[in-house]
Amino acid sequence: MKTIYMLLLVVVLSGLAGGAALAEEEAADSGPIFRPVEVLACNYRKGQDRADLDRVIEKWNAWMDESKAEPYRAWVYTAHYGSPDYAFDIAWLGAWPDGEVMGRSTDSWIQNGRAHAAAFDRVVDCNLHANFVTTQMRKTDRKPPPTSVLTFSDCKVNEESSMREVMEAIGDWNDYLVEQGSVGNEWIFFPVYGGEADYHFKWVSAHPNHTELGKDYERYANGGGYQKGQEMFAGKVKCSTSRVYNAEMVRDGAPK
Length: 256
Fold this sequence. Notes:
The protein is α+β, with helices and mostly antiparallel strands. It is built from 7 helices and 9 strands; from the N terminus they run H-E-H-E-E-H-H-E-E-H-E-E-H-H-E-E. It has one domain (13-251): Alpha-Beta Plaits, CATH 3.30.70. Strands 1-3-2-9-5-7-6-4 form an 8-stranded antiparallel β-barrel, surrounded by 6 helices. Helix 1 (13-26) runs parallel beside helix 5 and helix 2 (50-66) runs antiparallel to helix 4.
């Protein structure tokens, strides 16, 4: 697998604080502001494929249920529009409701999940395991669908700007998209553990399908979105071309 630069540079906490303050203002009384996420990028081992992985996931899910595991949601995703710098067969995205749950879940996995870890390892070789702290910038009322379309962009804050200014601009941008009828969700992923990064955050979106992503594409290309984005983000941030992935939820371990 080619080296994957998965944005895992620790963001200076003082820079994060500006964005946290803004998120707190906008998401008062909505629960934890920042949530932990893990990402693994993997290739199938020789002779293995998705059917083999699905069998391992099925047994892992049964074990998670039987052991009354901590709340944990997981998705697997594959590239639809990719990049050689992010070349992998399949990726895993897992999310916990907060850091304490993440810690307890990790201890349980290390102590009790060895057989399942070995089963995963027989199917896939994961040369990247990264942790991010995330904040949701736009949220719909829908329950996460069984399949979705994810986009990832790597972003750098301009030296003349600040993380707070960028977060404010992203908030204004999402207000604009909602007014235009967009139904996607959006997050900012800040790198914490693992990997290497040459940017400050990932801008991530999720649409329920390619039809809804295509509607946002049209709004941006021919509906004035490009011009609006240039107006809002000029001089503040620079982001890479988005990569697009088809995602499938493999565990809906939401908090009860």
